[in-house]
Amino acid sequence: MPAFRQVGEKQLPNPVLYMAWSPKRDLIALVNTAGELLLHRLANFQRVWNLPPSENTGKEITSLAWRPDGKILAFSLGDTKQVVLCDAEKAEILHLFTVDYPVSCMHWMEVQSDSSVSSSFTDSEDESNRFLPKLPILPKSYSSTSKIFSEEKSDEVPNLLGDVRLNILVVGGQSGFVELYAYGLYKIATLNTITGVCRSLCLSGDLKSLSIITEVRSPEDNAEIHYVQLDTGLLSSCLPELTRMARKFTHISTLIQYLRLSLTCMCEAWEDILMQMDLRLTKFVQEKNTNTQVQDEFLELLLWGHASPELQALLMNQLTVKGLKMLGQSIESSYSSIQKLVISHLQSGSEALLYYLSEVKGMALWKQKFQPLGLDPSAIEDAITAVGSFTLKASELLQVIDKSMKNFKAFFRWLYVAMLRMSEDHVPPELNKMTQRDLAFVADFLSEHFSNEELFDRKGKYFNVERVGQYLKDEDENLVSPPNMDGNHWVTFVQQSTHLKESPLLFPTYPQKSLHFVKRMMESTIDICLQKPAGVIGGSVKQAVRLPLYSVSKSEYNTALSLRAKCIFFSCRWNDKNAAMHYIVFCMQEISPSKIYILRRATDPNRSVPNGLVAIDLNTPLNTTIDDEADRSYSCLDARLYDDETLTVVLQGQDSDDNRLRLLAQLPLGSPFCMLVFWVRLDQQSEGIPAQGLTWGNQSRDLENMKAQFVAVNGIRKVACVVRAVFFMPALDTLQLSPVIIDLPQSLSKSRKSRSTIYKKTMTTVKLG
Questions:
Q1: Cα–Cα distance between 143 and 148 in angstroms, integer?
Q2: Which of 653, 646, 655 shows the shortest CA–CA distance to 713?
Q3: Is 375:533 a contact under the CB 8 Å cutoff?
Q4: How would DSSP label each residue in 555-582?
Q5: Which residues form the Anaphase-promoting complex subunit 4-like WD40 domain (predicted)?
Q6: Could you tell me the CA-to-CA distances from 554 to 218, 561, 562 in Å, in that order?
Q7: What angle do CA 752, 668, 649 make, to 5 degrees?
């Protein structure tokens, strides 16, 4: 009976580049050359959903990473330099952020459990839920942008944060680019100490070190592979404070996004039809032949009921009775929608933002705890002031909307009756009544909106009767018609008071600026507040060790790229949390193609544990019961950790007759490590590395007629997915790949109770081509 059982095979239309099993569920994510992200279920390899490439996000997916709870999948895009967080249930994009360089690798880890830390943060989250009401849901019908981010509302933030325990998404790319994101949302560190391209990285579970595999170009243009360990002791020593700060700042980041989308909905609620009155009055001024002012024309119509031929033509031929009625309805509907969004969304979001910033300010004042993380009380105070100014500007917009609705209602009612009389139509009795107070109100409206001061603004417009739209324009220029503060008793009182005029207790107002301008000013101020901890924490990270592993010649490098083979870079890395050790599996194809090397390094850089290294020789019988296997030689194409003590590998026969042979095997990882001093590059002292032979009986399977390339394993489900090449056309450089599901046996470690070394599982992705 064979040890491995094939349970499924699926032919896919496009080659597969990456794949990653969910750490908690029977789901596997696939990325193909068409830029599609596919999610399949283990049962019959059923497709759950398909996320096609998009112009908004990108088309070139470069890496995958699952959140440790398996609820969110992160993928990076090289063409747009973005990282996207996707809901595993609905294929909805929950969040995305832009980075400076294309991402080549990602790792999403969860901090080791700490019950004391978890209980303290549960209490703090409950307090915020008691004080802050849930924010209203963003209207989904306004735009595609609000649909994409419809989940980014206050009641969904806990789902984005996941468990109370801190989890960190680490991204790396070209030019030594490495960034750390708490909960995949808030950037807590930017590292600038790495040289070369990041090929693989892993943050230890105790947060004491970050291990990175880098590719550095030599003067001869060869690719030199290095192992770099960075000391991240500040993250470990300040874990409770870091978790609290990260959760608060994550709420702040999502609230800023909520306000931004609310303002977008307000802009879309404002319609261009509201500008028709301004444009037609402007055209009327340009075309009329008299020197009479427009204000006088309308006042004559108001007082005497007579209109000049030019004004009558404007009202009856261009504006029309039906058009005036439609315009009035549009203004009332649009203004009401904007008013509701300001009250329910902008003001509620601003209040929540002030709450969280005030909490962060209190944390920053506890300098003993939070100053090492870069919290600056003065920067947070500036952010609070900016949010206060934004709140005042939103209140100012409410006043303008309320006044404009009253003005337009009275003005349109009078103008509607006047136009009905011009056309000799019947005037309803309820509209035919106009008191002296109504006349005075309309006269004041005409005097305010049709005066000489309103004529010919900077854009060539003669009128600005519509006052709300200027607040929603994303421009740096001043408002065309700012609010008139003359006669405002509070403004006069503050200006005349020497103590209140410069008081820090009062939020500054910007009466000449639009709501969009104040919003951008608030975002930039808060962004400075959010980015400062990332710079301080990133500056505290120092390089603990750099170990040169091996070099890949330019010819071998180019050959591997043309064959879409990344075996020269593959590195399987994982943490042994019990022993606080970090392990890396790699191959040196040019020096020792038939050996797999395992490097061991303590996660604590200050711990005096020598570097450990062991080589596993693949030139041993795969099955001791078959004699003709003894002379075969194999090289490793890919390796993934199956469980604590087992490594799953894809092997290729090296002989000319066996180069098409592929084997899937389970390797026991119980070999003793030797202590090694890296005085030169590892490939230059490979002869001194002891090699361990292996015999694993029936723990292998011949992948017949299957040109396997790489594998993804799920030790919890005891299953592996092998991607094979169906055909290869060197002239076109085309490689067709399809996955094969293989049921693996029980872990080899079940029969080996005593092992000196425990290996911990880490899900990774390997790039092909």
A1: 9
A2: 646
A3: yes
A4: HHHHHHHHTT--TTT--EEEEETTTTEE
A5: 19-110
A6: 10, 11, 12
A7: 150
Q: Which of 156-165, 238-247, 299-308 is the least confident region? A: 156-165
Phi-psi region of 383 (alpha: psi -120 to 50; beta: other; left: phi over 0): alpha
pLDDT score of 387 more than 90: yes
CA-closest candidate to residue 415, choices 486, 324, 303 = 324
Q: Are strands 5-9 and 734-743 parallel, antiparallel or unpaired?
A: antiparallel
- Class of residue 287 by CB neighbours under 10 A (exposed 0-12, middle 13-18, buried 19+): exposed
- What gap in Å lies between CA 323 and CA 321, rounded to an integer? 5
Question: Which phi-psi region, left, alpha or beta, contains residue 723 (left: φ > 0; alpha: ψ -120 to 50)?
Answer: beta
In 70-182 the beta strands, taken as DSSP E runs, fall at: 72-77, 82-87, 93-98, 103-110, 167-173, 178-182
203-90-13 Cα angle (round to 5): 85
DSSP assignment letter at 759 = -
Dihedral sign of CA atoms 121, 122, 128, 133 in order: positive
Confidence of residue 579 (pLDDT cuts 50, 70, 90): confident
Helices and strands (H and E) in the chain: how many = 16, 30
pLDDT of residue 751: 36
- Quick one: CA dihedral 278, 279, 280, 281, positive or negative? positive
Q: How many other C-beta atoms are found inside a 10 Å radius of the C-beta of residue 654? A: 16
Q: pLDDT tens, 151-180?
A: 444 445 556 666 668 899 999 998 889 999
- What is the number of alpha carbons within 13 Å of residue 698 lying toward its C-beta? 8
The CA-atom distances, in angstroms, between 432 and each of 309, 318, 419, 421, 439 are 23, 24, 12, 10, 13
pTM above 0.90, yes or no: no
Packing angle of the helix pair 294-304, 276-287 (nearest 10 deg): 100
Would you say 738 and 13 are in contact if contact means Cβ atoms under 8 Å apart?
no
| Residue 257: burial class (beta carbons within 10 Å; 0-12, 13-18, 19+) | middle
CB distance 759 to 574 below 8 Å = yes
102 CB-near residues (< 8 Å, 6+ apart): 62, 76, 78, 79, 81, 173, 174
- Report the alpha-carbon distance of residue 662 to residue 705 in Å, rounded: 8
Query: Could you tell me if 189 and 236 are in contact, meaning their C-beta atoms sit under 8 angstroms apart?
Result: no
Task: Provide the sign of the torsion angle of the four alpha carbons 488, 490, 496, 500, taken in this order.
Answer: negative
Is residue 72 within 8 Å of residue 60, measured between CB atoms?
no
Residues with Cβ within 8 Å of residue 456, at least 6 apart in sequence:
462
Q: Is 108 helix (H, G, I), strand (E, B) or coil?
A: strand
Contact between residue 289 and residue 444 where contact means Cβ atoms under 8 Å apart: no
Residues facing 109 on adjacent strands: 168
N-to-C CA span, the chain:
36
- Range with the lowest mean pLDDT among 1-15, 514-528, 733-747? 733-747
Question: What is the Cα 562 distance to its own chain's centre?
Answer: 32
Dig out the tokens for 405 from the structure: 């609705």
Backbone angles phi, psi at 17, to 5 degrees: -100, -40
pLDDT above 50: residue 706: yes
Of 444, 575, 557, the C-alpha closest to 170 is: 575
Strand pairing partners for 54? 58
Contacts of 708 (CB under 8 A, 6+ apart): 637, 650, 662, 664, 722, 723, 724, 725, 740
- What are the beta bridge partners of residue 182? 168, 186
Give the SS3 label for residue 14.
Answer: coil
Provide the pLDDT for residue 359.
92
Query: What is the average pLDDT score of the chain?
Result: 77
Mean pLDDT within 446-452? 68
